[in-house]
Amino acid sequence: DEHFGIVPLEAMAAQKPVIACNSGGPLETIKHSATGFLCEPTPQQFSSAMAALMRNPEMSVEMGKQARDHVTQMFSTKSFGQRLNQYVVELHEKV
Fold it and tell me: I want to staple 20 with a disulfide (CB 3.0 to 4.6 A). Which of 12, 26, 46, 75 is the partner?
């Protein structure tokens, strides 16, 4: 189990839907059936997800767009900076 993997985020930033195990870091970064697929760690689950994307290229493109939007909104430098600033302001107000 990878706690927070950068590879799924890189793929999503490149507008690619991600297929990953439904445990660890992917649970925090992938929205099942929206930005990719979260699967049980079995060949059957992974091959089923791959087949779904191959059978439906339009779905793959749409999921890729949603993946890019999700990464930009949640994990971009700008988004990170805004959240960090918010935490610092809240911390300062408590002191």
Answer: 26
